[in-house]
Amino acid sequence: MTRVLLTDDQPLVRHGLRVLIADRPGLEVTGEAANGEEAVRLAERLAPDVVVMDIRMPGMDGIEATRRITASSGTPPKVLILTTFDDDAYVYGALRAGASGFLVKDMDMDQLLAAIEVVAAGDALIAPGVTRRLIAEFAARPGTSPPSPRPVAGITVREREVLILVGRGLSNGEIATRLHISAATAKAHVSRLLTKLDARDRVQLVILAYELGLVTPTWGQGRG
């Protein structure tokens, strides 16, 4: 049974998620938090497998709560950010804080439940739309210049191609189609990249792809 801690300052959102999760075999809500401070305390006391975390909350926000939860000793829970596209400015901070993925509040409910299961299984999930907006957020920052593409030691030419596509938000299936390889082969390439680059999950690969200059937004144009 995957134990889920819900964190959102809106009681109706928490109630809706609780009802939704209750109908999903293999998932159970182990607690609810209304802000970041409460989420940190409950995560330590209840030891959930996944924390569904809102970003904008009074007091401690979801980014700081995520940072504290993922930095805890032992085996910390996975954190799945609950966001809206209006939260673009917070996405990179949440990634850096250790979030394993993102949920969008207007996404299909079955996708939301599947995302919780994916993260609980140790994988990471980041919606392609969020990835594109993450890159656009970098582009919109004043005084920022694009990083120059740099060689990545220890990976093959094919793995570099896969890393670029991961950075653009493509799924394993989409990578397989783009490179004319099987989905299993694409998954194997991603697994090897995680090991070779000492990345915690797919989300960290997205960050690396950007920081290595492999994914380049249209600089100087903001988010129109």
Automatic annotation (TrEMBL):
<dbReference type="GO" id="GO:0003677">
    <property type="term" value="F:DNA binding"/>
</dbReference>
<dbReference type="Pfam" id="PF00196">
    <property type="entry name" value="GerE"/>
</dbReference>
<dbReference type="Pfam" id="PF00072">
    <property type="entry name" value="Response_reg"/>
</dbReference>
<keyword id="KW-0804">Transcription</keyword>
<dbReference type="InterPro" id="IPR011006">
    <property type="entry name" value="CheY-like_superfamily"/>
</dbReference>
<protein>
    <submittedName>
        <fullName>DNA-binding response regulator</fullName>
    </submittedName>
</protein>
<keyword id="KW-0805">Transcription regulation</keyword>
<dbReference type="InterPro" id="IPR039420">
    <property type="entry name" value="WalR-like"/>
</dbReference>
<dbReference type="InterPro" id="IPR001789">
    <property type="entry name" value="Sig_transdc_resp-reg_receiver"/>
</dbReference>
<keyword id="KW-0238">DNA-binding</keyword>
<feature type="domain" description="Response regulatory">
    <location>
        <begin position="3"/>
        <end position="120"/>
    </location>
</feature>
<keyword id="KW-0597">Phosphoprotein</keyword>
<dbReference type="InterPro" id="IPR058245">
    <property type="entry name" value="NreC/VraR/RcsB-like_REC"/>
</dbReference>
<dbReference type="InterPro" id="IPR000792">
    <property type="entry name" value="Tscrpt_reg_LuxR_C"/>
</dbReference>
<feature type="modified residue" description="4-aspartylphosphate">
    <location>
        <position position="54"/>
    </location>
</feature>
<feature type="domain" description="HTH luxR-type">
    <location>
        <begin position="148"/>
        <end position="213"/>
    </location>
</feature>
<dbReference type="GO" id="GO:0000160">
    <property type="term" value="P:phosphorelay signal transduction system"/>
</dbReference>
<dbReference type="GO" id="GO:0006355">
    <property type="term" value="P:regulation of DNA-templated transcription"/>
</dbReference>
